[in-house]
TrEMBL record:
<dbReference type="GO" id="GO:0006353">
    <property type="term" value="P:DNA-templated transcription termination"/>
</dbReference>
<protein>
    <recommendedName>
        <fullName>Transcription termination/antitermination protein NusA</fullName>
    </recommendedName>
</protein>
<dbReference type="Pfam" id="PF08529">
    <property type="entry name" value="NusA_N"/>
</dbReference>
<dbReference type="GO" id="GO:0031564">
    <property type="term" value="P:transcription antitermination"/>
</dbReference>
<dbReference type="InterPro" id="IPR010213">
    <property type="entry name" value="TF_NusA"/>
</dbReference>
<dbReference type="InterPro" id="IPR030842">
    <property type="entry name" value="TF_NusA_bacterial"/>
</dbReference>
<keyword id="KW-0805">Transcription regulation</keyword>
<keyword id="KW-0694">RNA-binding</keyword>
<comment type="function">
    <text>Participates in both transcription termination and antitermination.</text>
</comment>
<keyword id="KW-0963">Cytoplasm</keyword>
<dbReference type="GO" id="GO:0005829">
    <property type="term" value="C:cytosol"/>
</dbReference>
<dbReference type="InterPro" id="IPR015946">
    <property type="entry name" value="KH_dom-like_a/b"/>
</dbReference>
<dbReference type="InterPro" id="IPR003029">
    <property type="entry name" value="S1_domain"/>
</dbReference>
<dbReference type="InterPro" id="IPR013735">
    <property type="entry name" value="TF_NusA_N"/>
</dbReference>
<feature type="domain" description="S1 motif">
    <location>
        <begin position="138"/>
        <end position="203"/>
    </location>
</feature>
<dbReference type="InterPro" id="IPR025249">
    <property type="entry name" value="TF_NusA_KH_1st"/>
</dbReference>
<dbReference type="Pfam" id="PF13184">
    <property type="entry name" value="KH_NusA_1st"/>
</dbReference>
Length: 412
């Protein structure tokens, strides 16, 4: 092809870029036909023969033989005199086929053709990557850290495609350096500046769900179903599971013998504390399980407003709330109910005073904040130190000191 083996060079490109044979042939033919239209005004009377394996391309033009005085269009017609120069047996009305040489198009046209072909194949490759990862949304992928920036990490998959792990999708204690292997779930794929933009996440509940599917064969096989997953990445998570086979203990299957199955997940999530809970339609029982390890005395339900008042012994309140309020927060998210915890006072503690009694001295929003962390009586507040109250609530230290002064005065 006049020393310009376009087909051969792009056949090699095809192997690198995973563009299938039929698609490449369609693109090649489309590019060449556009070139013919620009030069001759039409491509209808041309046949294009492509052989990718051999790196051959042939373009043949078909013209009708007409009388010399009827000759008008040199692209679609050939005069009888010119036809007989090719073959003396040609007659008017017959079709003459001759090959179009690339040298007839000129160097500039061939260069433009090459550029168009490169652009189209690059576009196809981007579409291929976009489609491939669109189908992988919600799946775990493994890649190699290529570049670490302040706001995101650039990850390369095994084909060299670029994936992005933003800072907000990283577990707070994550630390990666160039060359590390990383696992994350694909959460979003979009086109940005005409290129596929693939977003990964390690904080999504879906990531934890897929890790369970990988580690627990019963989940992968559909014998155990994950009903809900809530988590504070790197800190704590709650996973509700249900078994359709009475012979299978869903919690035991997920944890594994001596925690063998869940340990791998915990390590992947930077020692995130994972509570696996047996799902039930009995919402009171579900809330009780969700607040584990706290032992609950009774629950008052307000199903219309999706609220639950939980009563516990004083020593159980801190267990129900959890460090930083994580246990009660995740239990609320898991069950879909707003949960308030209350202390059940023993007889010896009946002289305790409900915080509501101090509404004339303590502002209502301060009382609500104290109740939010399980302190609904004067003594329950006084049992905690200033530093504990400051860490558990959103109150300023001055406000806490004022409250403690008022409450102490009540008992003095």
């Amino acid at each position: 092809m006049e020393a310009i083996n376009l087909i051969d060079s792009f056949a090699e490109f095809k192997e690198l870029k995973n563009i299938d044979r039929a698609t490449l042939m369609r693109v090649l033919e489309d590019i060449f036909r556009n070139m013919l239209i620009k030069r001759y005004g039409t491509d209808e009377n041309f046949d294009i023969i492509i052989n990718i394996d051999k790196g051959d391309l042939e373009i043949w033009r078909n013209r009708i033989v007409v009388e010399d005085d009827a000759f008008e269009n040199p692209n679609t017609q050939i005069s009888l005199t010119e036809a007989k120069k090719i073959d003396a047996d040609y007659e008017v009305g017959e079709e003459v086929t001759d090959e179009v040489k690339f040298k007839d198009f000129g160097r500039r046209s061939v260069l433009a053709l090459r550029q168009n072909l490169s652009a189209r194949i690059l576009e196809l490759e981007k579409d291929h990557i976009f489609t491939k990862y669109k189908e992988k949304v919600g799946q775990i992928v493994t890649g190699e850290v290529y570049q670490v920036w302040k706001k995101e990490i650039l990850v390369l998959d095994d084909e060299g495609n670029e994936l992005i792990l933003p800072k907000q999708e990283q577990i707070p204690s994550d630390f990666f350096k160039k060359g590390d292997t990383i696992r994350a779930v694909v959460i979003r794929v979009e086109m940005k500046n005409a290129s596929p933009y693939i977003i990964l996440s390690r904080t999504s509940p879906v990531f934890l769900e897929r890790l369970f599917e990988n580690e627990v064969p019963e989940i992968f096989d559909g014998l155990i179903t994950i009903k809900n997953v809530v988590r504070v990445p790197g800190e704590r998570a709650k996973v509700a599971v249900e078994s359709y086979d009475d012979r299978i203990d869903p919690v035991g299957a997920c944890v594994g013998m001596k925690g063998s199955r869940i340990h791998g997940i915990v390590r992947e999530l930077r020692n995130e504390n994972i509570d696996v809970i047996n799902y039930t339609n009995n919402i009171q029982l579900y809330i009780t399980r969700a607040l584990n390890p706290a032992k609950i005395n009774k629950i008052e339900m307000d199903e219309e407003n999706k609220r639950a008042n939980v009563y516990l012994n004083p020593e159980e309140v801190s267990l129900a709330i959890g460090k930083g309020g994580l246990n009660i927060k995740l239990a609320s998210q898991l069950t879909g109910y707003e949960i308030d915890v209350y202390r059940e006072l023993e007889t010896a503690e009946e002289e305790d005073v409900n915080l509501e009694e101090f509404s004339d001295e303590i502002e209502p929003w301060v009382i609500e904040e104290l109740k939010r962390v399980g302190c609904d009586t004067a003594k329950s507040v006084l049992e905690l130190s200033e530093s504990e109250l400051e860490s558990r609530t959103d109150l300023e230290i001055e406000t806490i000191r004022d409250v403690l002064k008022i409450l102490r005065a009540e008992f003095e």
